[in-house]
Backbone:
């Protein structure tokens, strides 16, 4: 297998602190399993760049990145300097849309050694995927204001769902469910309240399910589904949801499994026509930045997901993925741990400990 | 104080099972504290009525109800017979909008005797309000389909936020926060993803906060806020949110506090120009209907909220409210309990036990 070219974008805040640990572990895995990974760092797509240039990225960002096999991404956002909708729409959301990374795949797993906020749960009890639509839906800058600065002021906010967009994410989710032992899919909507788009989503689920007679499926309104994540997380296997609902459920799920500090995600272009992007679920966390105490596991785990995707079943990549996961689990159990997990280790110490196990 | 006229609408499913218990307790409280409550039952706003008449309510529903002081409401929805968006838009959502019940007030409280799914929490640790905007926002039937039944099919879904709608719910929430010992308000938005409406909400929060220098406030993206409900529910006091986010957070909150089976809500028209509505947070639960095992506490607690609102500080009403809450707590601790709480009691037995304590 040839060299894989990976674009590295650390972004803002703790993105800059966890990225070196992600790279440290990937380099260790590459050395051990003979993978050819070539990293190229980009100093844009962050709020410092915005302050200097008035935009998050150079005009030719698409051309600069499109030839890479993957983007390894930290976190973007520094709300004191740049409003979040500007920094995110100018970087991450652009990548997801323009590189057509229509699947946001987010494992929710209670890992050994991680204290669980839910009473009486043990590793194995919580182990599912949130499959989030990643390019359309509620995430939208379409709309506007009327009667601005008057008492009659009014805001219209459009959400857009296309058959193509809905069907392809449902298909991915049903395929994933089919590949898993439980073969169970749950769809999240809110069709009793949101009267146009959500009944449409329900209709498409029903149509898609007809092609997967071997997959059991159900659907929940997102409010009660959120409650069930807390009350009976064991019952989920593959949860498919719109951009917004997937966003909420994929923060809530990892919280139920202990911490969002370790949750990874893959923004996939399954056709591989353009680069996919791998990033922690957590954000740039301005409140803890600068202390080198951020938990690097989400970044490292996202790297393992990247290897899995790049390797397409190549044994060395599978081994590298599994070895990283094993190293993560070992360190979660025996330490060192960052403060969010009750330890006193630094980001660097935890990253080095994981790398040392490879 | 004169007679209070209360419209009783049981609705569908377990709404029909918990309503008699709610009424039983209210009647007991009225007898003990000398309240004049007059109940009038309506046999519409349910899916049986829809099957007979092709609509959820008679054409003159507004005129029939507008003179009541309050509506005591069970639950609506029977998705096997009537799609949820039809049954709900034809009843509950109409009430909320046309009676201008713009505040949906939902206490989230860990009660004594209720097993908490979160490890290590005890009564007192979780005690906050979700204040939900109840008339506009994401709950919308505005929008439509294009290119129907083709590959290009496309759905537009509009959300509408008005300055009046946003400001009045924020004002209610800030006033509530000011009245509480912690004086703390949290606003939920998602301004990094939903680029028009949510930054607007953030702006209005900032403007409103200027009038409440004594209230500490913060804002969270709803995804991380959902995670915080699980990881640190102690830190919340008053959480204000849009219609959709309030809906999600007010199912999630009660789940974190043990069960949505006991969570009440008040749909308030604070100006009292039209009736307010009091209902459980839970739905009609077709899966358990017909067994008389539904937990009646949410219905009973909603009744207590109704007395509190109707009484406007009148000592007898305050006493009745407090006595019902005390009776609920006593039964939660010593039983009898319905199966959702680990017991074997029926809905009726639990309701009778609460009423007997009055
Ligand atoms: C039944 C449904 C329309 C309703 C809502 O979403 O508002 C319910 O979930 C609630 O929270 O009262
Ligand atoms: C930063 C933000 C735009 C992003 C999202 O909402 O998609 C994040 O919360 C995530 O889940 O990846």
Residues:
């Amino acid at each position: 297998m040839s060299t894989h070219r990976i674009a590295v974008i650390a972004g803002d805040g703790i993105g800059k602190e966890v990225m070196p640990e992600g790279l440290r572990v990937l380099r260790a895995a590459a050395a051990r399993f003979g993978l050819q990974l070539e990293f190229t760092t980009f100093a844009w797509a962050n709020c410092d760049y915005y302050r200097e240039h008035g935009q998050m990225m150079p005009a030719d960002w698409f051309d600069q990145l499109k030839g890479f096999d993957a983007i390894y991404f930290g976190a973007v956002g520094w709300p004191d300097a740049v409003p979040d909708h500007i920094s995110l729409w100018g970087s991450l959301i652009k990548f997801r849309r323009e590189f057509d990374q229509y699947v946001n795949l987010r494992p929710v797993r209670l890992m050994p050694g991680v204290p669980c906020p839910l009473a009486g749960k043990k590793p194995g009890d919580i182990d599912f995927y949130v499959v989030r639509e990643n390019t359309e839906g509620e995430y939208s800058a379409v709309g506007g204001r009327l009667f601005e600065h008057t008492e009659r002021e009014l805001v219209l906010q459009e959400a857009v769902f296309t058959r193509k967009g809905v069907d392809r994410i449902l298909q991915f989710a049903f395929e994933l469910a089919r590949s898993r032992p439980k073969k169970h899919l749950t769809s999240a909507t809110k069709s009793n309240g949101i009267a146009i788009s959500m009944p449409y989503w329900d209709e498409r689920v029903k149509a898609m399910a007809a092609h997967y007679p071997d997959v059991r499926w159900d659907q929940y309104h997102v409010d009660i589904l959120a409650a069930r994540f807390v009350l009976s997380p064991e019952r989920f296997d593959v949860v498919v949801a719109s951009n917004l609902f997937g966003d909420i459920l994929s923060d809530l799920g990892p919280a139920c499994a202990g911490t969002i500090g370790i949750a990874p995600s893959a923004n996939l272009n399954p056709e591989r026509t353009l680069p996919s992007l791998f990033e922690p679920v957590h954000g740039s966390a301005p409140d803890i930045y600068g202390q080198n105490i951020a938990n690097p596991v989400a970044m490292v785990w996202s790297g393992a997901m990247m290897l899995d995707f790049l390797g397409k079943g190549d044994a060395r990549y599978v081994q590298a993925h599994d070895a990283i996961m094993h190293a993560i689990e070992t360190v979660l159990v025996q330490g060192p741990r960052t403060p969010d997990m009750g330890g006193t280790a630094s980001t660097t110490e935890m990253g080095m400990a994981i790398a040392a196990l490879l």
Remarks:
- Chain B is about 40% helix and 20% strand.
